[in-house]
Structure prediction request, 355 residues.
Amino acid sequence: MASDNPTVSIREGEELNIEAVDALIKQNRPDIQSAPQMAQYSSGASNLTYAIDYPEQRFVLRRPPFGYIPKGGHDMYREYRIQTALHPVYPYVAKTLFYTEDESQIGAEFYVMERAEGHLIHKNIPAEWEWGSEQARRLNETFVRRLVDLHNVDFKAAGLADFGKPNGYVQRQILGWNKRWAKAWTEDVEKFEDICQWLEDNRPDTEQGVGLLHGDFRIDNCILDQNDPTQINAILDWEISALGDPLMDLGNTLAYWIQADDPDFMKMVVRQPSMESGMMTRQEFLDFYAAERKINTDGFQFYYVYGIWRLAVIIQQIYYRFYHGQTDNPKFKAYGMMTNALGQLARFKIKTGKL
Prediction:
């Protein structure tokens, strides 16, 4: 179906040593004896993702991008560790196989996990599903509940008490993303110094508890069940997961949540089918989440603006690599425009005070 996660021939300059990968997989899975087929997933703009398919089992390999790597970014072990620890208590992650820091194998650290089977969709719900608003709403509710479930995980019992430093998380995030912005800024993008200052000046005095944060929680990072796509089999892309205030994660999620009545400049960054009939508005999403977790979300505007700004910085970091010739992937050419659009959106939300 059109909703499958498509693969492409491996892009020039992003080839891997398939013999080395094959040998390591067979060390960990001696039951596999056949030869692998290898391709690259076309989706994703940060870490690189490859399909390693055997008749016995299909796997996914994740590695950092080629070229410049920001300090502390693209930590493959971090992704591997949280998925390995979460799988027994939060079954909406793929089962991991192994991780290696031995860069002599393919030129970088990487890990391999079993492929989570199902649908991966992007901006639209596939027309052939013939969904109405009721099915879209069920998917939306499932999506929010999986975020709630993650934030309610007993991370200490899962062995993740040392996964991060939750105390002072909000302050570190604001200062950290502002610092990354300064390093990734390019002359063809506005500086947005006013947004950096607003976030520093408006940090909340207290944090709303500690939970496991995904950092990139979107429908297009979910594998939907093959038989009932209103249900989620697995959540992908744990690259920037952390311990911290769950409202920061919710702010990140709602920064991606574009609704049907948003102005056109907001729709430039739509990544998931959040504009479909039956999907919640951001306010409905926030209210549903708050009711499920039984928490107060007063003052949430700060977290939402933070989410928009963080997304702008992530996109700008990718654009920085393209701008300086460290990658020639043509889809990154427009990322500077996307950064400007997100910065303007953050300003708009600060001014109006609305979701």
Observations:
- The domain at 127-352 is CATH 3.90.1200.10 (Aminoglycoside 3'-phosphotransferase; Chain: A, domain 2).
- Residues 301-323 form the longest helix (23 residues).
- The CA atoms of residues 37 and 53 lie 5 Å apart.
